[in-house]
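Structure (tokenized):
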């Protein structure tokens, strides 16, 4: 996922949003964020899906940059990439809202000039 000094590039932003538009994946990010960090088995316990299905969803979220993964022994622990989530929260409104223009004072029309 590409980031610049200004924030996410368009490709990275869209990739993260696509990953989050899946209801299961969105919920997984919520559950992992609430826990701080979970291993795949713990995520599976929360969702009752098969291990391959959990791995598939976690892979998509990781590839989108929404999750970070660390290995410890035989376990892989996932956590939410909080800087990326913060960037999403900043970038999305900035790109979808119109730029604010400074208000120009209106010219006053004199009632006696007409």
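Design, position by position:
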């Amino acid at each position: 996922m590409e980031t610049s000094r200004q924030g996410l590039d368009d490709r990275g932003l869209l990739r993260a949003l696509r990953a989050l538009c899946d209801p299961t994946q969105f919920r997984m990010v919520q559950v992992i964020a609430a826990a701080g960090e979970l291993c795949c088995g713990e995520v599976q316990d929360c969702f009752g899906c098969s291990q391959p299905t959990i791995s598939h969803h976690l892979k998509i979220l990781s590839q989108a940059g929404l999750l970070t993964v660390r290995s410890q022994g035989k376990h892989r622990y996932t956590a939410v990439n909080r800087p990326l989530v913060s960037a999403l929260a900043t970038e999305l409104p900035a790109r979808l809202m119109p730029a604010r223009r400074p208000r120009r004072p209106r010219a006053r029309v004199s009632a006696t000039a007409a």
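Reviewer-requested clarification: The first strand starts at residue 3 and ends at 4. Confidence is low (pLDDT under 50) at residues 1-6.
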